Every structure is written in structure tokens, then in C-alpha cells.
Amino acid sequence: MSFLKKVCTLTAAVSAAAMLTTGAVSAKNFKIAVGDGAGSSQEGTGKFFIEALEKKSGGEHTGTMFLNGQLGSEQDTVNEAAIGTLDMSLLAINNVTPFSPTVGVFTLPYVILSLEDAEKLTQGPIGQELTENTIRDAGVRILAWTYTGFRRLTNSQKPVTTVADLQGLVIRVPKNEIMIETYKSWGINPTPMAWSETFTGLQTQVVDGQDNPYTTINAMKFYEVQKYVTNLRYIFSIEPLIVSEAVFQDLSEEDQQILIEAGKEATVKSAQYLRDIEAEIKESLLAKGMQIDDPANDEAEFIKLATEAVWPQFYDSIGGVDKLNTVLTTIGRDPVQ
Ligand code: MLT
């Protein structure tokens, strides 16, 4: 046996013995896929999480983010995490729904009406139940919640303030049935497209528009290829940090707890981040030449069409109308039926 081989064998034996006596797991650098770019709310949550993780583990564990969908489309990263080939992913909840339909309750149009609603739902028993559902259905565990804000419609063609204005526009949506049906309720057939292909789709005018929150529009530089913004508030975008359940279960109980606590800290900081920056981001989009319009009549036409047509279609997939009613009453709204 060569000297180098002998040293390696001895080192491996010594670390194995140390692990047996102390139960210690070697330092881990979690690989974190991020759908959005630098400056996004997702990146903010990633940074808060990594900071907390490093602090709580005494510097033993850290994470590395791969921004802008470098590790694949958001929906692909759920599959990767499920089989344990990816540690973590930060992505929009609408891209988790196809794998765990009950989380769709957060994507139903006009259910969540404020950041405070989003905080109450995600950080309470409903958030806990949905976390357990994603473990069961999709093999991923939600560690933290990013609050990114209301999804605003953008397009390159014309100002949109009414449902009539929308007609004729080709709008990209995520591959999410609830969002597809919402646009159908407004009279158009949207184009489902992966998030990682959306900028190019807008740039080449394969699609005229899309919807996402201000911070995402800004981080993804959509102002370079989109002119008009409509302040639709049909979905409040919630964007979880998920960890592969297989990876999570390989950790010691102590490390699992560190991840959970770091996720809670990142969640609280994400809400503050949105409160601090959203108004500023809106101003910077205006300064970059975007035109921002409010929908006519406080959005009443959009709200009526979407809630009447879309909610009943998804009662079964979200776990029954009672589930929606629990969500509505949790945020102080009247139940349906
Ligand atoms: C989407 O539109 O697919 C997502 O909202 C993108 C994102 O994660 O920001």
C-alpha cells in the first residue's frame, strides 16, 4: 500500500471512529436551487436561512445558492429534491402544487388578501398541515416561507385595466391548473411555460405577458422586455424553501432542529424584507420606464369572474370546501356556502 493510501485509510478510520463515539455528522454545504435572480425575495430568504444555519450550527453547516434556475426549472427541482439528488430549492408555491395539490389553497385567486393573511396562514396550523402534506405527497419538507407579494400582470402591448383589455393577449402562466383556469375565467387561454423559459418567451414575443410580484419583475429584469403593469392582486405569491425529505432524514435530530429553527428565522425576516423594499422596488420600476395601472372598479370584475368560476373547480383537490373555509375563517373572512 502506498504512503498516501495508508494515510487516507487511517484518516477515514479515525473519522469513522470519532463519528461513532460522538454521533457527529460531517459539515454540510447544502446545495440550494433558486428559481429567481439576484435581488429577489427568494434570494433574500436564502441568505437569511444560510446566515441562521451557520450561526445555529456554530459554523459547521452552510448553504450555496444557485440562482436563476441554473439547476433546472422550479418544477424539476421538486423532483430532484424528492429523489435526494438536490438538497434544497426556493421556488413559488404554484410550482409545488402539481406535486402536492392541497397547497393549491394558497394559489386560489383572491383568497389571500394581504401579507398579514399570508403570515397567519403559513406560520399557523394550516402551514404545518401543508408542510406535512408535501412530505407525504412530494417527498419534500417546507422549511421556510418567502413572502414575495401580489402577482402583478405585465405585458409588452398595451395598458390593461379591464377584462376586455386582456382579450387577444398571449399570457404565460406556470404549469398550474388553478392559474390556467383563472385566466380562462377572464376569457383567455393562457400559455403554460416553465419559469426558466419565461424571460426568453417574453423577449422573443412568443408570449406578450406574464404575472409575478414587483420584486420578481425587478430581479428578473422584466422591465427590459415588458412595458405595462396591471396591479392585479389575484394571488399573493408565497415561495417556500423546501428540503429533500431523504436528505433531512439523514441528518441527526440536532441538525434537523437547526434546519427547522433557521427556516423559522428566515420566514420572519422575509416578511420584514418585503415590508422594507416593496414600495421602493415599485418606484424603481416606474423609473425604469414601466407604466403601472390599477384595474378598474377595484378589480371587482376580475374578482367576481375568478372566484365564481375557479374556487368550486378545485374544492376536491385542495381537500374539500371545508379546507377553504378553514383558511377563510383563519384570516377573518366569511366561509363559502
Ligand atoms: C412562476 O411564475 O413560475 C413563479 O412565480 C416564478 C418564481 O418563482 O418567481
Automatic annotation (TrEMBL):
Claim: Signal is one of the keywords in the record: yes
GO biological process: transmembrane transport
Subcellular location as annotated: Periplasm
Signal peptide region: 1-27
Domain of life: Bacteria
Family annotation (Pfam families): DctP (PF03480)
Alphabetized UniProt keyword annotations: Periplasm, Plasmid, Signal, Transport
Cellular component GO terms, alphabetical: outer membrane-bounded periplasmic space
Family: Belongs to the bacterial solute-binding protein 7 family.
Protein name: C4-dicarboxylate ABC transporter substrate-binding protein
